[in-house]
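On clarity, I found the account of how folds are encoded harder to follow than it need be. For illustration, here is how one protein appears when written out as sequence plus C-alpha coordinates.
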Amino acid sequence: MQPIQLEHLFTVSLGVESPLQMIGQTPFGDRRIAKVTGGSFEGRKLKGIVRAGGGDWILVRQDGVTQLDVRLVLETDDKALIYMTYKGLRHGPAAVMERLNRGETVDPGQYYFRTTPYFETGAEKYAWINRICCLATGHRLPTGPVYTVYEVL
Protein backbone atom coordinates (compact mmCIF):
# COMPACT_ATOMS: atom_id res chain seq x y z
CA MET A 1 0.00 0.00 0.00
CA GLN A 2 1.30 3.45 -0.92
CA PRO A 3 1.32 5.89 2.03
CA ILE A 4 -0.40 9.24 1.59
CA GLN A 5 1.98 12.13 1.15
CA LEU A 6 1.09 15.81 1.29
CA GLU A 7 2.76 18.89 -0.18
CA HIS A 8 1.89 22.46 0.80
CA LEU A 9 -0.06 24.04 -2.08
CA PHE A 10 -0.93 27.44 -0.57
CA THR A 11 -2.24 29.25 2.47
CA VAL A 12 -5.41 31.30 2.00
CA SER A 13 -6.87 33.97 4.29
CA LEU A 14 -10.50 35.00 3.86
CA GLY A 15 -12.39 38.08 4.94
CA VAL A 16 -15.98 37.49 6.01
CA GLU A 17 -18.78 40.05 6.21
CA SER A 18 -20.24 40.62 9.65
CA PRO A 19 -22.86 39.91 10.75
CA LEU A 20 -23.61 36.58 9.11
CA GLN A 21 -27.01 36.01 7.55
CA MET A 22 -28.79 33.99 10.24
CA ILE A 23 -31.39 31.80 8.54
CA GLY A 24 -32.23 30.09 11.83
CA GLN A 25 -33.14 26.65 13.00
CA THR A 26 -34.11 24.41 10.07
CA PRO A 27 -34.87 20.68 10.00
CA PHE A 28 -31.13 20.10 9.41
CA GLY A 29 -29.69 22.43 12.06
CA ASP A 30 -28.91 26.12 12.55
CA ARG A 31 -28.30 27.57 9.06
CA ARG A 32 -26.04 30.60 8.58
CA ILE A 33 -24.59 32.15 5.45
CA ALA A 34 -21.26 33.97 5.48
CA LYS A 35 -20.42 36.29 2.61
CA VAL A 36 -16.73 36.26 1.65
CA THR A 37 -15.47 39.82 1.12
CA GLY A 38 -12.05 38.92 -0.32
CA GLY A 39 -8.70 37.64 0.79
CA SER A 40 -5.37 36.41 -0.47
CA PHE A 41 -3.50 33.17 -1.08
CA GLU A 42 0.13 32.26 -1.60
CA GLY A 43 2.13 29.13 -2.26
CA ARG A 44 5.09 27.90 -4.28
CA LYS A 45 3.05 27.20 -7.44
CA LEU A 46 0.48 30.03 -7.33
CA LYS A 47 -0.54 33.17 -5.48
CA GLY A 48 -3.07 35.96 -5.78
CA ILE A 49 -6.30 37.30 -4.33
CA VAL A 50 -9.68 35.91 -3.39
CA ARG A 51 -12.39 37.82 -5.20
CA ALA A 52 -15.30 39.19 -3.19
CA GLY A 53 -18.65 37.48 -3.69
CA GLY A 54 -17.98 33.94 -2.52
CA GLY A 55 -19.76 32.42 0.40
CA ASP A 56 -20.01 29.75 3.04
CA TRP A 57 -23.31 27.97 3.59
CA ILE A 58 -22.82 26.97 7.23
CA LEU A 59 -24.86 24.40 9.09
CA VAL A 60 -24.42 23.99 12.85
CA ARG A 61 -25.71 20.49 13.44
CA GLN A 62 -27.56 19.19 16.50
CA ASP A 63 -24.35 17.42 17.61
CA GLY A 64 -22.49 20.77 17.73
CA VAL A 65 -20.44 20.14 14.57
CA THR A 66 -20.20 23.07 12.16
CA GLN A 67 -20.51 21.84 8.60
CA LEU A 68 -19.02 24.11 5.89
CA ASP A 69 -19.94 24.37 2.21
CA VAL A 70 -17.79 27.06 0.57
CA ARG A 71 -17.45 28.46 -2.97
CA LEU A 72 -14.80 31.02 -3.95
CA VAL A 73 -13.07 32.50 -6.97
CA LEU A 74 -9.30 32.80 -6.77
CA GLU A 75 -7.53 35.25 -9.08
CA THR A 76 -3.84 34.46 -9.56
CA ASP A 77 -1.24 37.21 -9.79
CA ASP A 78 -1.21 36.68 -13.58
CA LYS A 79 -5.03 37.14 -13.75
CA ALA A 80 -6.12 33.49 -14.18
CA LEU A 81 -9.41 32.60 -12.47
CA ILE A 82 -9.75 29.41 -10.43
CA TYR A 83 -13.00 28.22 -8.89
CA MET A 84 -12.39 26.73 -5.44
CA THR A 85 -14.99 24.75 -3.55
CA TYR A 86 -14.68 22.84 -0.32
CA LYS A 87 -16.65 21.11 2.36
CA GLY A 88 -15.43 20.66 5.85
CA LEU A 89 -16.05 20.22 9.55
CA ARG A 90 -15.22 22.32 12.59
CA HIS A 91 -15.88 21.18 16.15
CA GLY A 92 -14.47 21.19 19.63
CA PRO A 93 -15.40 21.59 23.27
CA ALA A 94 -18.50 23.76 23.75
CA ALA A 95 -16.60 26.51 25.59
CA VAL A 96 -14.03 26.74 22.79
CA MET A 97 -16.70 26.89 20.09
CA GLU A 98 -18.55 29.62 22.03
CA ARG A 99 -15.34 31.68 22.08
CA LEU A 100 -14.94 31.22 18.31
CA ASN A 101 -18.57 32.21 17.72
CA ARG A 102 -17.98 35.40 19.74
CA GLY A 103 -15.13 36.26 17.36
CA GLU A 104 -12.31 35.57 19.79
CA THR A 105 -8.92 34.25 18.66
CA VAL A 106 -8.55 30.66 19.86
CA ASP A 107 -5.51 28.36 19.63
CA PRO A 108 -6.23 26.07 16.61
CA GLY A 109 -4.95 23.11 18.63
CA GLN A 110 -8.07 23.36 20.79
CA TYR A 111 -10.52 22.44 18.01
CA TYR A 112 -10.81 20.32 14.87
CA PHE A 113 -11.05 22.23 11.55
CA ARG A 114 -10.52 20.28 8.31
CA THR A 115 -11.71 20.74 4.71
CA THR A 116 -11.44 19.02 1.33
CA PRO A 117 -10.83 21.62 -1.42
CA TYR A 118 -11.30 21.01 -5.15
CA PHE A 119 -10.58 23.33 -8.06
CA GLU A 120 -11.71 24.15 -11.60
CA THR A 121 -10.04 26.42 -14.15
CA GLY A 122 -9.92 26.97 -17.88
CA ALA A 123 -6.45 28.56 -17.64
CA GLU A 124 -3.96 26.30 -19.42
CA LYS A 125 -1.10 27.29 -17.10
CA TYR A 126 -3.05 26.01 -14.10
CA ALA A 127 -4.83 23.03 -15.74
CA TRP A 128 -2.93 20.70 -13.38
CA ILE A 129 -5.09 21.98 -10.50
CA ASN A 130 -8.18 20.40 -12.15
CA ARG A 131 -6.63 16.95 -11.56
CA ILE A 132 -5.58 16.98 -7.91
CA CYS A 133 -7.15 16.19 -4.55
CA CYS A 134 -6.42 18.38 -1.55
CA LEU A 135 -6.82 18.48 2.21
CA ALA A 136 -6.70 21.59 4.37
CA THR A 137 -6.39 22.52 7.99
CA GLY A 138 -8.04 25.68 9.18
CA HIS A 139 -8.21 28.12 12.02
CA ARG A 140 -10.61 30.99 12.62
CA LEU A 141 -9.49 34.57 13.19
CA PRO A 142 -11.94 37.36 14.13
CA THR A 143 -11.80 38.60 10.49
CA GLY A 144 -12.31 35.18 8.90
CA PRO A 145 -10.78 31.76 8.39
CA VAL A 146 -7.25 30.87 7.33
CA TYR A 147 -6.59 27.55 5.58
CA THR A 148 -3.36 25.74 4.87
CA VAL A 149 -4.08 23.71 1.72
CA TYR A 150 -2.10 20.56 0.92
CA GLU A 151 -2.01 18.67 -2.36
CA VAL A 152 -2.37 14.92 -1.90
CA LEU A 153 0.53 13.41 -3.89
Summary: Strands lie at 6-16, 21-26, 29-42, 47-50, 55-60, 66-76, 81-91, 112-120, 134-141, 144-152.
